[in-house]
Design a protein that fits this description.
The complex is a heterodimer. By secondary structure, chain A is an alpha+beta fold. Chain A has one domain (1-45). Chain A is built from one helix and one strand; from the N terminus they run αβ. The N and C termini of chain A lie far apart (75 Å). By secondary structure, chain B is mainly beta. In chain B, strands 1, 4, 5, 6, 7, 8 and 9 form a seven-stranded antiparallel β-sheet that branches. In chain B, strands 2-3 form a two-stranded antiparallel ribbon. The relative contact order of chain B is 0.28. The chains are: A alpha+beta, B mainly beta. Chain A binds chain B through residues 31-32, 34-45, and chain B through 1-4, 48, 85, 95, 122-127, 129-130, 134-144, 146-147.
């Protein structure tokens, strides 16, 4: 019983880690694509 | 956003391969706008207009509709920011354009009404809310430091005053690669 519990815990832990990793990559990609536009008429000199 | 630079990655001195040109099937440059063939050398000569009425250092189009300016940087460039400068005493100072980009090996077709098939839309810019007259500048940049890795940029500009058949009075367009300060 302990062996199975340990295996399930490892599988769930691995899945959670992979999910967090993929989520982190997704967030980084989203930031990489985030383009900003600013307009100005005073600081060109 | 800082002043126009003669040392950006699209400037003629810094990058001899950088070429700005217009698409003849859209608005054509005014006879005094400095075009050389299809090229628009004033847009990357590092010089800014000296007043609100300085046609010798400005590029503008005679059109009631849109004008398109194609920029070839000569190589794929990881761009950190793009600055566009204009100056006019009145209605031709504001900027309204959509910027498209491509990392293809040759320039995608820049004539279709729908550019989304072969170009990536980078940004839509409108400085009209700043009001008419004076200096206008727009800066396209990224929170992450990189706008994208592109060789070709395409500015799709709308006319400022269709009733005058006039676009805005563009003075300079600066493109900075990641790592270049100014």
């Amino acid at each position: 019983m302990n062996i199975w519990s340990d295996r399930i815990r490892r599988i769930l832990g691995g899945t959670l880690s992979a999910g967090l990793f993929i989520l982190q990559i997704g967030i980084l990609e989203a930031h990489a694509d985030e383009v900003l536009v600013s307009v100005d008429r005073t600081t060109q000199d | 956003m800082g002043p126009p630079s003669p040392e950006d990655d699209a400037d003629q001195i810094q990058n001899a391969k950088a070429v700005f040109s217009y698409l003849p099937c859209f608005g054509k440059p005014h006879a005094d706008a400095g075009a050389s063939g299809f090229h628009l050398p004033r847009l990357n000569d590092g010089k800014f207009a000296s007043s609100g009425d300085d046609p010798a250092n400005s590029t503008w189009f005679d059109t009631k509709g849109n004008s398109r300016v194609l920029v070839d940087l000569g190589r794929n460039t990881r761009i950190s920011r793009i600055n566009v400068y204009s100056w006019h005493s009145g209605a031709l100072s504001p900027q309204r354009y959509t910027l498209w980009a491509s990392d293809a090996g040759s320039p995608p077709d820049a004539e279709p009404a729908d550019l989304s098939r072969s170009w990536k839309e980078v940004a839509r810019v409108d400085t009209f809310p700043l009001g008419e007259g004076g200096k206008h500048g727009s800066s396209i940049n990224s929170r992450s430091g990189g706008v994208g890795n592109y060789r070709y940029l395409l500015f799709d500009l709308s006319a400022n005053k269709p009733e005058w058949s006039r676009s805005g009075f563009l003075s300079e367009i600066d493109v900075y690669a990641v790592g270049r300060k100014r």
